[in-house]
Design goal:
Elements (H helix, E strand, L loop, with lengths): L1 E3 L32 H7 L6 E4 L4 E4 L16 H7 L1 H15 L9 E3 H5 L3 H22 L7 H6 L8 E8 H13 L6 E3 L3 E5 L4 E11 L2 E8 L13 E7 L6
Length: 252
C-alpha cells in the first residue's frame, strides 16, 4: 500500500458516476448535502448567509439548499437520496442536535447512545452509521473514486460494514475554537469535513484506503475504508461509544 496525494491519485479515479452508486439505477442523479440542511439552517445568518472555508479561500454561501459549496456532485437517484435514506437522515439529525447542544461532552470519555436516542438506540445508532456510510459513498463518488460495494450492502441492511472502521472522537482544536468564541461572545460552533487521506495498490491499480472525518462542533466521526479489512471495531455496536481524543488537526 502506497500513500499518494494530489495529481498522483488521478490515474486511480474513474470519473463522475453515470448511474446511482447505491442501487445502480441509471437516469437523472441528485446531489447529497455535505452536511444536512438542518445543520446549515441552524447556523444561517439572515443577512450574511454562511461562510464556507476551503483549503485556499472562503466563500459566502447564499443558499443552504442549492449552493455548490454545500453539496456533493450528483451521484444518487432521487429514490435512494430522498426516500431510502430517510431513517439515516433522521438518526443523524438527532445525533447532530445532541452534540451541538452538549458542551459537557468534552469532559466525557463515552457518548451514551441511549441519551441521544432513548430505548431505540440500537436501531438508531445503526442508522447513524448508515448515514456516515452514505456520506462516504457520496464523497468518494464526488472525488472520482469507485464506491466500495460493501457500502451499498450495508445501506441495504447489512449488520456491519466490515471494511470500514468508524470511531467517535472529540477534537481539541475545535473545542478550543468553541471556548475562544464563548469568551469573546461569539458562537463559533461549526461543521467541518477533514481533508481525505488515500493509499493505492500499484499491483491492483486501485485505491486501497480512504480516510477522513466529519465534525459537528467538536465531536466527530472518523472513518477509514481499507480494501479486504475485516477486523473493525465500530462505535455503532456499543451503547456507550468511546470518545477518542484528537489532539491535532489532520495534515493535508
Amino acid at each position: 500500500m502506497e500513500f499518494l496525494s494530489g495529481a498522483d491519485l488521478d490515474r486511480y479515479k474513474v470519473g463522475p458516476p453515470v448511474s446511482c452508486w447505491w442501487c445502480g439505477k441509471s437516469g437523472p442523479l441528485t446531489r447529497e448535502h455535505k452536511f444536512k440542511k438542518s445543520d446549515l439552517s441552524r447556523m444561517w445568518d439572515p443577512v450574511d448567509g454562511l461562510v464556507w472555508g476551503g483549503e485556499a479561500q472562503t466563500r459566502r454561501v447564499r443558499s443552504a439548499r442549492k449552493s455548490e459549496q454545500v453539496r456533493f456532485a450528483a451521484s444518487l437517484c432521487s429514490t435512494c437520496n430522498n426516500e431510502s435514506s430517510q431513517p439515516f437522515d433522521v438518526a443523524y439529525e438527532k445525533f447532530s442536535d445532541h452534540v451541538w447542544h452538549n458542551s459537557g461532552l468534552w469532559r466525557r470519555r463515552f457518548l451514551n447512545m441511549a441519551d441521544v436516542y432513548g430505548d431505540d438506540w440500537r436501531v438508531d445508532v445503526l442508522n447513524l452509521a448508515r448515514y456516515v456510510a452514505k456520506h462516504i459513498g457520496c464523497r468518494m463518488a464526488h472525488e472520482g473514486y469507485p464506491v466500495p460495494p460493501s457500502i451499498p450492502t450495508f445501506l441495504n441492511g447489512g449488520g456491519r460494514l466490515n471494511d470500514v472502521e468508524m470511531v467517535l472522537f472529540k477534537s481539541r482544536p475545535h473545542y478550543e475554537l468553541y471556548r475562544m468564541g464563548m469568551r469573546d461572545g461569539i458562537d463559533s460552533r461549526g461543521l467541518w469535513i477533514s481533508p481525505a487521506n488515500g493509499a493505492v495498490s500499484r499491483s491492483r491499480q486501485q485505491l486501497s484506503m480512504y480516510s477522513s472525518s466529519l465534525i459537528v462542533n467538536f465531536v466527530g466521526v472518523m472513518y477509514r475504508w481499507e480494501h479486504a479489512k475485516e477486523d473493525v471495531d465500530p462505535f455503532y455496536v456499543y451503547q456507550r461509544g468511546r470518545l477518542h481524543l484528537r489532539h491535532r488537526l489532520p495534515e493535508v
